[in-house]
Amino acid sequence: MIKYFRHSSVFELDSGRRFDSIQIAYHSFGTFKKGIPVIWVCHALTANSDVSEWWAGIFGKDKTLDTEKYFIVCANNLGSCYGTSFESSDSNEDLPLISIRDIARSHILLMQYLGIGSIFMLIGGSQGGQIALEIAYERQQQIRNMVLLATNARHSAWGIAFNEAQRLCIESNSEEGIRAARAIAMLSYRNYEMYSRTEKVEDYEKISDYGAAAYQRYQGEKLKVRFNSKAYLILSRAMDSHNLGRGRGELAQVINRIGTKTLLIGISSDILFPVSELQFLAKNLPDALLSVIDSAYGHDGFLTETTKINKIISAFINSGLNKL
Q1: Residue 318 gets which letter from DSSP?
Q2: Which of 27, 80, 90, 101 is deepest in the core (most CB within 10 A)?
């Protein structure tokens, strides 16, 4: 069941804009009591705080997110359209420029509200991994272990270009633009190999009505039904802002300050967050292990390759260095 926390004090963004208050929607699973380890989940751009819904493959008994072993919390990201909101007396009606650090700070406020002083495992994929990195930097004494999937330490020019192309679609037609934006996004989430599977042999004899075209329309319509354009614009810009080193020093040196034991999981065919970005993190984090999943699913592999992910994370937890 969704829950809400209202932070009634002023919340100032990296941009300098101030909110009079923010409301954070979140889900929690299991029992929070002494001796029960906490897992904190950071979700990706268009997901919500119900991790049991979008990561069902690693949620449940004998899986990574096992509510019989752990107390699990997932907070909805600031700027999303799934229950997290903000109130401002500012007459400026422009969309707020929210950064990954702003989202991380909102998560930290929720941790404080819930009375969580120690987190056994902080986990996030894609934009969720970016948020987790920022949390770990700010609260590394509280984070015992971290798992980052298909993410990076600084968003790439390639990723920013994809996001801008999507925003151009939305800005040209706010009602229908989100469908086109999602279609563009799918090209970065998947790859040549996966799209080849959308066509049957006989489809190549056609001159229209291709499977790949139908798939793009289907994905666009699905997102239009469950998400909105404002949230898409805000959160894609937040992703662009991600730079762990911003204002802190040279990126590699900043990463090196995070002493949290970290498992990095890359997807071999990911073109949006290529394995090289995980290798850069592995090289500069003082205590990190990198595992690369061989998958044809591209970036979406962090959501679909759950059998492999469960196995890798289980081995990490049981490695002897991460006992409860």
Answers
A1: T
A2: 80
